[in-house]
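Query structure, 578 tokens:
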């Protein structure tokens, strides 16, 4: 341990810690624009690229960046002297001098870290003017836009994309005022290996990276009297939406969310959890078929579009390994535009399916060539949790004061297994609840597979299925998925089922969720909210959902029937590795 003093107060931290970490321990706030903490990855970005965290160290002539200066015994640090504050102001003014002054209309307004920093430093004018950067906005992706005019070159996105996700879609390009962060040769992001996971968007401090906003299309569809507009909401949305309205993290707002969506004017308000139950029916049946008939194992889950695109690029020699099931979002759309349309006597051509997702990859997924039927997409418009927050505000709804309302039937009914899809490990747990009972013909009483829960990047377990050991694993984040798949390819590890989610904590940590700024405690609370909702349900196994049973009895036949295949399954394509 090393002892030092910060602002005259003694503190002890491990050798190798930085001044910034020592200040954290004392509760002293040193502002920074480039710091990226991802505790579950033990990743602390110390690139010192923004230089906002400068501090005075006794005995040194120059100010030192707190994030990149290791503590020394008996060091004396001052974090908020007049000299330090002036230096921080100058640095931020220099950044602002090369930043568009469009805060009033910027998509990140009120959530921008640069805006907050300027306020924190009481910056009321910019002393510098002159040449500025000019970049063309890359709007090639259906998921997110790259506006490098707003980039502060903090490189958080690059760390996230390369170190955590191992996608390597982003890196520094050019020099001087032309410097930006982008794909090789500054090609359009949609032509690159980017998988649209949105984790770079989640950590970008400004609107240099921001999701495509589709809210206007939703309002237009609702207003159009010729359209019949249904909405589905993914499990993870309810666990985080309340945070934007002053409701403590971890309080699920399922009923208020249904009430708000009904106030918008949707014709039906449904739950993607219903389709999560349907996914389990198809996925568990596929696993059991492969398990009993010597098929390809491990089976890999396929409900995360970021992960699907990742394996299409990086493991294209293994395209027969993942499950062929579409994601719950797409299964929902496929059933809404067939069975539901038939039941409600609505022409499917008039039906608009809107999804509220924690995810920006779902925007990309909805437009994939392998989705939809007869030239009609399964899902028409996808908005994120953050876009839903803005729409609730636009509509003037006092969200916190809303009375709970239920979803509509039949696609609003779900089991606890459907709810936990939103947390890393939840899809696998849900699949095991059903697969166990189908394989053994016995009732599973202990439905909580706790070894698969939590934020650890890789979780492994062996499940006893009536004397048969079933080896399973969960990977949260694409870097962990790469590790698992490379071990399997090299014959070092064997599993029966693997769940992969592109976002490190699963969908609760999705790129479209309210920003959590690396706060693991918030992620844990969101996770807890979903497991609590699961526990509160009378039915906790997907195959027990009465509306799913009815759907198979009256429409689909059985899992993997010809019609189920046509509507609920897909195929994958080989994509370039670089
Ligand atoms: S969306 Fe994901 S894959 Fe694409 S650039 Fe961002 S972090 Fe990388
Ligand atoms: S795009 Fe955003 S996260 Fe990436 S370097 Fe620029 S400001 Fe930082
Ligand atoms: S983990 Fe969830 S939120 Fe993240 S990319 Fe996959 S589906 Fe989207």
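Result returned for the query:
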């Amino acid at each position: 341990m090393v002892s030092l003093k910060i602002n005259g107060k003694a503190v002890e931290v491990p050798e190798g810690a930085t001044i910034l970490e020592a200040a954290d321990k004392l509760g002293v706030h040193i502002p920074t624009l480039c710091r990226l903490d991802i505790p579950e990855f033990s990743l602390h970005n110390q690139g010192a690229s923004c230089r906002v965290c400068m501090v005075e160290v006794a005995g040194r002539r120059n100010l030192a960046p707190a994030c990149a200066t290791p503590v020394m015994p008996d060091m004396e640090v001052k974090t908020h002297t007049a000299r330090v504050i002036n230096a921080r102001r100058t640095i931020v003014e220099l950044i602002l001098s090369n930043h568009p002054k469009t805060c009033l209309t910027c998509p990140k307004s009120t959530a921008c870290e640069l805006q907050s920093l300027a306020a924190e430093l009481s910056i009321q004018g910019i002393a510098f003017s002159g040449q500025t950067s000019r970049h063309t906005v890359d709007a090639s992706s259906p998921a997110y836009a790259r506006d490098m005019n707003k980039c502060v070159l903090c490189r958080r996105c690059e760390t996230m994309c390369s170190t955590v996700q191992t996608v390597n879609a982003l890196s520094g390009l050019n020099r001087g005022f032309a410097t930006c962060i982008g794909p090789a040769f500054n090609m359009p992001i949609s032509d690159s290996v980017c998988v649209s996971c949105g984790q770079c968007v989640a950590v970008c401090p400004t609107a240099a990276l921001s999701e495509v906003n589709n809210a206007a299309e939703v309002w237009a569809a609702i207003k159009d009297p010729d359209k019949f507009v249904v909405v589905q909401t993914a499990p993870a949305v309810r666990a985080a939406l309340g945070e934007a309205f002053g409701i403590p993290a971890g309080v699920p707002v399922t009923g208020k969310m249904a009430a708000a969506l009904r106030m918008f004017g949707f014709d039906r308000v449904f739950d993607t959890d219903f389709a999560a139950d349907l996914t389990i029916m198809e996925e568990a049946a596929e696993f059991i078929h492969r398990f009993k008939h010597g098929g390809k194992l491990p089976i890999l889950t396929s409900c995360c579009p970021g992960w699907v695109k990742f394996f299409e690029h990086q493991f294209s020699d293994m395209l027969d390994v993942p499950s062929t099931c579409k994601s719950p979002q797409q299964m929902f759309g496929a059933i809404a535009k067939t069975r539901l349309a038939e039941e409600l006597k609505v022409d499917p051509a008039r039906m608009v399916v809107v999804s509220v997702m924690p995810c920006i990859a779902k925007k990309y997924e909805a437009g994939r060539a392998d989705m939809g039927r007869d030239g009609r997409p399964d899902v028409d418009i996808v908005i994120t949790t953050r876009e839903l927050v803005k729409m609730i505000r636009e509509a003037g709804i006092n969200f916190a004061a809303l009375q709970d309302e239920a979803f509509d039937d039949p696609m609003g009914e779900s089991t606890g297994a459907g709810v936990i899809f939103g947390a890393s490990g939840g899809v696998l747990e849900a699949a095991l609840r059903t697969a166990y009972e189908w394989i053994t013909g016995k009732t599973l009483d202990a439905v909580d597979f706790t070894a698969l829960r939590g934020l650890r990047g890789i979780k492994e377990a062996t499940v006893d299925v009536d004397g048969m050991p079933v080896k399973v694993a969960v990977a949260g984040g694409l870097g962990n998925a790469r590790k698992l798949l490379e071990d399997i390819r090299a014959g070092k590890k064997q599993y029966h089922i693997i769940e992969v989610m592109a976002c490190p904590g699963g969908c609760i940590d999705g790129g479209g969720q309210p920003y959590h700024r690396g706060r693991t405690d918030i992620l844990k609370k969101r996770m807890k909210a979903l497991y609590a909702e699961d526990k509160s349900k009378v039915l906790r196994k997907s195959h027990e959902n009465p509306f799913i049973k009815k759907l198979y009895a009256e429409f689909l036949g059985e899992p993997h029937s010809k019609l189920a295949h046509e509507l609920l399954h897909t195929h994958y394509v080989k994509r370039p590795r670089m």
